[in-house]
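Need tokens for this chain, all 137 residues.
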Amino acid sequence: MADCLFCRIVNKEIPAEIIYEDADTLAFLDVHPKTPAHVLVIPKTHAENLAALSDSQIPPLFSTVKKIGKLLRSVLKADGLTIGINEGRASGQEVDHLHVHILPRFENDRGGSIQSIVNNPPLQNLKQIKEKILKND
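Here are the structure tokens for all 137 residues:
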């Protein structure tokens, strides 16, 4: 897409600190890092979210996520990683091109876990939620 920021990075129209590239994916440093070496991994094919990405493009994307995660842990001696995807504005997605955040984590870095991002417990019990999900399957 001509107006997509990340597509423009893929097409080398906008500079980025690219740390990995292959035929299907690109990994680059986030311009607003939350941790040292906060990386974004994107498919080169435009897809707004995971559901919009073709099934054939999912393995290359997550293979790159794995490769970059291992690299960051090794090079930075990170104690862990937080890996996540924000889908939709309500979750914090700012660029409408699927991207996976990889955040190197260190003991006492004052960060939280993914499940600490939101605290909106369901009003229904788990069985009711399961039935609702399966009914719409």
